[in-house]
């Protein structure tokens, strides 16, 4: 069974992934695969964005790259055209090599081909004020920067409508214990549906 895991900025996706890993699921971190894809494509990215996209040692400067591409949608599309094919190939390979209980953890899940291969998708949602508080505490961002990050993700939820028939929404609004209990219940039901328990 392959289960997708996604959610908005600071909704609790990482906590859910850690919990599933602790329950014996093989968790594929697509963000980490994206970093690998970026390292493999550093030359092409520097050609697109200029030498400022690389650090002095030649490795990608993700902060500088983010500042450039997120400020220009057309540049972002060109950047993703370089990175995403490699990232998608790495994700497909990781799913193929994983066991019978696989979780694909990806903020951009609804825009990636691997979403179609998922038997079910767990989407984490949380109240806006909670997400702002987490963003300030975790990332040290101001409210405006957090709201911009949240707004940039809006097209993902539109794309997610195509997967509504296999999406399970888990709301992270009742405290840590309540959230963990709900994740455990959902994961248990999914595993039971294929006799994996």
Describe the structure.
The protein has 197 residues and is of the alpha/beta class. The protein folds into 2 domains: 1-25 and 101-192, Rossmann fold, CATH 3.40.50; 31-99, P-loop containing nucleotide triphosphate hydrolases (Rossmann fold), CATH 3.40.50. 57% of the residues lie in helices and 13% in strands. It contains 10 helices and 5 strands, in the order βαβααααβαβαααβα. It has helices at residues 13-22, 30-40, 42-49, 62-69, 73-97, 114-117, 128-139, 143-152, 154-159, 176-193, and strands at residues 2-7, 26-29, 102-105, 120-125, 167-171. The protein has a 5-stranded parallel sheet, with helices on both faces. The mean pLDDT is 93.
Topology:
Layout: E1 2-7, H1 13-22, E2 26-29, H2 30-40, H3 42-49, H4 62-69, H5 73-97, E3 102-105, H6 114-117, E4 120-125, H7 128-139, H8 143-152, H9 154-159, E5 167-171, H10 176-193
Parallel strand pairs: 1-3, 1-4, 2-3, 4-5
Helix pairs in contact: 1-10, 2-5, 3-5
């Amino acid at each position: 069974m392959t289960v997708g895991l996604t959610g908005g900025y600071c909704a609790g996706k990482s906590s859910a992934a850690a919990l599933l890993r602790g329950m014996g699921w093989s968790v594929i971190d697509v963000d980490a695969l994206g970093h690998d894809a970026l390292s493999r494509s550093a030359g092409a990215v520097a050609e697109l964005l200029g030498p400022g996209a690389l650090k002095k040692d030649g490795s990608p400067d993700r902060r500088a790259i983010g500042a450039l591409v997120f400020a220009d949608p057309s540049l972002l599309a060109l950047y993703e055209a370089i990175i995403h094919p490699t990232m998608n190939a790495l994700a497909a390979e990781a799913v193929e090599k994983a066991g019978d209980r696989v979780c694909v953890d990806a903020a951009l899940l609804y825009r990636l081909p691997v979403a179609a291969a998922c038997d079910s998708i767990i989407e984490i949602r949380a109240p806006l004020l909670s997400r702002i508080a987490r963003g300030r505490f975790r990332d040290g961002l101001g409210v405006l920067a957090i709201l911009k990050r949240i707004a940039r993700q809006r097209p993902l939820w539109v794309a997610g409508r195509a997967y509504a028939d296999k999406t399970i929404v888990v709301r992270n609004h009742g405290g840590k214990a309540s959230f963990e209990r709900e994740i455990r219940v959902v994961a248990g039901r999914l595993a039971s549906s294929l006799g994996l328990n």
